[in-house]
Specification:
Length: 120
């Protein structure tokens, strides 16, 4: 919990969204500190076969999953989806708001995100 508080105090919502974009794309963001291991960029994303788990093969998922949860807990679902639509997809504010009212999932269902206070 302390880690999320430090992130929320140190970075803007926009920066947290950018960091989450990188983590979701299996990339380490330098704002998170040093990479967890030297060969991080060469690690597989996750273990596909049972023998990978048996061999305890290291993966990016092992390192990034908790970071992803920490970043998500600093944002509401609407804040992150707003970033995705306006920055990554180039949607206008009006198009995003229309999409959000029409199609968004209930934030309680997206339990990994912070709950919003505005009821949207």
């Amino acid at each position: 919990m302390q880690y999320q508080k430090e992130i929320a105090e140190k970075y803007s919502k926009e920066e947290i969204c950018e960091m989450l974009d990188n983590v979701n794309g299996w990339r380490w963001d330098d704002r998170l500190g040093e990479k967890p291991c030297e060969d991080f960029d060469d690690l597989p994303r996750y273990n596909i076969h049972w023998w990978h788990k048996l061999m305890k093969r290291r993966t990016k998922k092992q390192y990034l999953q908790q970071v992803q949860w920490n970043l998500q807990s600093c944002l509401t679902a609407k804040e992150y989806y707003h970033h995705l639509h306006t920055k990554n997809l180039g949607c206008s504010e009006e198009k995003f708001e229309a999409w959000w009212r029409r199609c968004h999932m209930d934030e309680k269902f997206l339990g990994c995100y912070k709950e919003s206070n505005d009821g949207n």
